[in-house]
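User: My advisor, Dr. K., asked me to get a structural model of this assembly before our group meeting. I'm new to this, so sorry if the format is off. These are the inputs:
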Amino acid sequence: MSMLLWILLLPLLSAIVVLSVKTTNARSANMMTAIALSAPLIGLGVLINLAPRVFAGDVLSWQMSWLPQLGLDFSLRLDGLAFLFLCLILGIGALVLFYARYYLHRSDPMARFYASLLLFMQAMIGIVLSGNLLQLWFFWELTSISSFLLISYWSGKSDARKGARMALTITGAGGLALLAGLIMLGQIAGSYDLNEVLAKAQLVQAHADYPLMLGLILLGAFTKSAQFPFHFWLPNAMAAPTPVSAYLHSATMVKAGIFLLMRFYPVLAGTDLWFLLLTVTGLMTLLVGAYFALFQHDIKGLLAYSTISHLGLITLLIGLDTDLALVAAIFHLLNHAIFKASLFMAAGIIDHETGSRDMRKINGLWQFMPVTATLAMVAASAMAGVPLLNGFLSKEMFFTETLHQSVFGSLSWVLPVLATTAAVLSVAYSARFVHDIFFNGQPVGLERIPHEPPRYMRIPMEVLVALCILVGLFPQIIVGSLLQLAAAAALQGQPPVYSLALWHGLNVPLLMSLLAFIGGILLYFNRKQLFLFQAGFTSVRAIYQFEWVMQRLTQLAVKFNRWFDRGSFQFYVSVLLWASVLLCGYPLFNLLSLTGNRELLAFDPVVAVSAFVLVICAVATVLLHRQRLLSLVMISGVGLIISLLFVRYSAPDLALTQLSVEVVTVVLLMLALYFLPHKSVKTSAPSRVLTDLLLAAAFGAVIASLAYAMMTNSVDSIAQYFLENAKTGGGGTNVVNVILVDFRGFDTFGEITVLGIAALGIYKLLTGIPLFKAGADMDGRYWSNDRHPLLLAVVSQALLPLALMVSVYIFFRGHNMPGGGFVAGLITAVALVLQYVAQGVDWVKQRLVLAYPSLIAAGILFAFATGAGSLLVGRPFLTSWFDYFHLPIVGDIELASAMVFDLGVYLTVVGSTLLILANLGKLTTKHRPQENG
Amino acid sequence: MELIIAAIIGLLTCCGVFLILRARTFAVMLGLTMLSYAVNLFIFVSGGLTAGAGAVLGKTETYADPLPQALVLTAIVIGFAMTAFLVVLAIRARAELGNDHVDGQQPQEPR
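Assistant: The format is fine. Below is the predicted structure of the whole assembly, which you can bring to the meeting.
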């Protein structure tokens, strides 16, 4: 059913095309309108094409698997409810797009407007077509964002920016609650697929988390549909261009919350909590909206509060929780969309023609624009619920439903009374809309003399008002089957039996309507008293309150940021370390005893003595850390003892590596001292030392406890696998080396790559370094200009071939005995570094023609080629191969592909180490004072 | 014996952390070196302590866990590369900024 996908994608495509069109004159503006209109019109065509199948009761769907493991599939689903909403979104969307062509001023950026509106249309289509909960949420958020763009369309105006920000904050916060609620719903139901979730009503409602989940989902729906107490964003969103208000804030977006309630009606409704939350919220919203609508002077403000009130009415109907009430809700939703959109269009025309929306100024427009006035009066009558119009029918159904419920027990009579009260207010504000704007004397202080709008600007209104009348006169013919279809889908079953007729005889609902009319008209003509009463309250502007809260929040964030982001490295590190200590230490509280079941090793005096030396060295390093050279000597002692510990505890490979790395590290730090001050200034305050010590001690204690617990508990290790397969699978008896070059070869490949990158990075960092005072140290003392010591030079020259031979030996035996590429590489590097130390950089440079970066590249290439070689014979990357050969004299030898890989490791290690040290060393010599200088 | 080794690891961590929290780059380098000793030992003993066992197949009955050893071996070399990078970064910072404070600027007042 990829047709569904087209309905969804068309607005987006059309938005992209619209953005690429330049509007220079009326013709190009018309063309742009045509392009924008094509999306909803083609969409409607597709929908009509699909209608027979939907009306036959099919649920059309289209799916694309994305992340099925997470329950995330792209899924479109068209049922009766979605069909009705699509008709609204596409139908009213097309009319609004057409209307906007005449509404927008020539200087307004038209492409941006159309593109945002089309984006919004797509988001709405996405909500109603979604067959997956998370996907629904995605489109839900998209409506908030596109609504933000549309409200802030005239971004030069402060109230537009504020209104947009407020709408985004409220609906965005609600969206987050909705996400949490939908995830809970998905987890409870065991699926995010809408079809499956809808079938799990019993499971969901019996779940302990149902109240929380329901609350979160309702929070999303109520914020979006401007329910009390979240209603205040809607009047402030009236800063948007009027077509936006007509489309988003009356016909579609605010109905998204209602849609959500109807969509999940089968799975969520039916509980007392549902009834309570929805009826109370709906009733409050109905009354608050209707009451405040009466006091607005801004035409759009009146319409906004009226919209709030009608949304409350629909919510109340859904909350009443009978099948007929749901039918009434759907019917009223449809009717409200039709008459409210046309009223907003009327407001737009009036604004367009008079330059004002203030009802205190705009009076007596009947004489200037009789056609528009007639249309608006019909629509306003529908809003008031005058017979023969669509609003009357659904209002009668509403009255009937309020009479037929008994959940409030003996107080159930309150509901119809309050409903009638709201209807009285509704009649009163509708009367104000009609009387105050079109009659009531002459206009006051208007900028220009109003007249009828351009002919085409009225067309959308005419269509909608015609619908008001047609639905009012022939409800069964026009919307009967559509309503039935949507109700059946929302209820997930057969729709109830009801009749859509104009005349139900003389009954109580009709009496209530009559009361409402008389009361409303009386109220309107005695409104002066009420206005005076209302003026007694101090006016509270939601926008100021909201901005105040937002500013305080921002200030708080700035304050925190200023405190936290203080530019002190030490502070960041200690925060990070404290967090780690707490996180690592917390689980230790749950451990009863650190000592496990493993048999402990006997006391070993040799280790104890070395440990003692190590402790002295480590503590001395800390104590002497301001005398840098001394601390360097001390820390190298620590490294030495550690390599001894490796020997003791059966790790000769590690001992060899540690020993050779120790040498290069010390050389490195010595070189560093050349460029850095030799002594640290004492700057730390005693309190700082104390807190740092506390942190360090806590960290040490936690780590020591963890280490002890780890050592004394026997664990199931995967070591056995490596021990068993090293010889047979990897062809070597040195298991550590086989792991490095074979089992975990890919890791090693990554590691030598990192090594090479680090070395090259250092190379780059050292080029063009601006050294100052390199001829002397920090205190101004000149470096010694002695020759290189002769004895060292001689010994090192003699040692070089020996060391190289040892490294070759270590390399080759590595597969079966301790050794290997890493160790051999380090030994070679140490031997060459010794030459640098003994003879100086220039001397070595003349004799050793080796480009270290190329050496690194060669090493990594070797390793890569070995790995890629196995691809050639159809095996996975880095599969090793080995075999035994017999050579005369030498005897049996083993050749393994892993050795070539190890050669790569060797070359990279040699290249990187020397690149780092030689470059650092070179800097020290370049600036050295000459011997006779 | 395990107790002594654990204590050593704890002490090295403690010294390393304290040095990392100092204000001068050289101390931080010493601290990181110290901390990498501690980390390497920590990973090494995660396979349990085995004294006098064979490192090579076929020589003895019992073997030490080879996996932590392989991990630590590469960690030692990478640790060197990291220290070297840090050292050069510190040298460069000193050369560009004229001081060796970890924040790149001398504090206004001693803290």
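One thing worth pointing out at the meeting: Chain B touches chain A through 87 residues (CB under 8 Å).

User: Perfect, thanks a lot.
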